[in-house]
Specification:
Helix content is 28%, strand content 18%. It is of the alpha/beta class. The strands form two sheets. Strands 1-8-2-3-7-4-6-5-9-10-11 form an eleven-stranded mixed β-sheet, with helices on both faces. Strand 10, helix 7 and strand 11 form a beta-alpha-beta unit. Helix 9 packs parallel to helix 10. The longest helix has 17 residues. Bound molecules: threonylcarbamoyladenylate and magnesium ion (MG).
Length: 356
Amino acid sequence: MAFHTIIVPPDTEQINHAAALLSAGEVVGIPTETVYGLAADAYNPDAIKKIFLAKGRPQDNPLIVHIDSLDMLPELVLSIPDTAKRLAEKFWPGPLTMIFPKSERVPMETTGNLNTVAVRMPSHPIARQIIHACGFPLAAPSANLSGSPSPTTAEHVLNDMNGRIPLIINGGECEIGVESTVISVSEDRVRVLRPGGITVSMLRTCVENVEIDNGVLHMIANDVKVSSPGMKYKHYAPKAKVIILDGSRQAFADYVNNHSPSNVQDTYALLFDGEENLVSIPALSYGAVHDGLSQAHGLFASLRKLDELNAKLVYARCPEKDGVGLAVYNRLLRAAGFDVITLDKTNAPSENKKEE
Ligand code: TXA
Ligand code: MG
């Protein structure tokens, strides 16, 4: 399946072309407000298999199904808890994925053999137009090669998917930059399996009982059963070794300046805007300090940039671990293979964190 992959503008003609390809069981790269997705007909097992092939994704890691209206939900799921109805009313369309018991209609290929299905309604107008033009829900994981940072531009998708898919719809830079919040929902509680743009405190405005799964901030041993298969895999990993330095700006600068190996060319600091001059090695910013949204927007692009620069070792500034910062920290932790050095006690990584 060697394709000549092209990036096209999101005009009506190309959206209809994308829908025609998707209806014919092909895979298309599409923009969403979180990250770019690798979309295929959620009901077509052969199309779904092509997603796994293009990504090199483990077969047991389930996909998120994208809908453009609530009318598409009943066909996908067996039941909808009241809590989920309230959350959908408040946060859809938007970066919230909810897990439901799946209907017979959803093939096991889509859900990685689980009896549940993850569903979200994206807010990106182009994603919605494509789903609408298809008339069926689209399964779409992030459009990166399995293990690479998620793509936040059409060019990132091309870098990973060149020759593997026929078409990428260009929607510009993704607004949020990290993937959706994934939650499981029951009548009286919500459990966050992956933090994202919809934060814990936003969820708490709607549901009193919001828990954060242990896998969000902790490495899960291979033999432990996880609530969300994605937790097990090493994600978002740049080629460089990443070490998170958790502490103040000054402590970060002191550590980097005292610990940089002699081959400084290969060692980079990943820090916040305006901090570049504090360190004696090359540095790259991934967003504004104290601004989780800006850091979420910049993180994956920075990790990709470090690959382009052939970085071998990266010292990363630690984000704040609340609000959208929790999502940034969760992704950076995985990029670092959970390697965190605590520089001063006041900023120690919190254990068993339950609150934002
Ligand atoms: O923002 C997003 O969610 C992006 C855009 C494209 O919509 N998509 C995305 O998909 O991030 P993906 O496949 O890269 O991540 C899906 C995550 C994985 O961690 C997977 O394990 C989890 O959702 N997931 C999917 N279905 C699940 C299920 N039935 N039960 C538990 N976790 C599930
Ligand atoms: Mg992904």
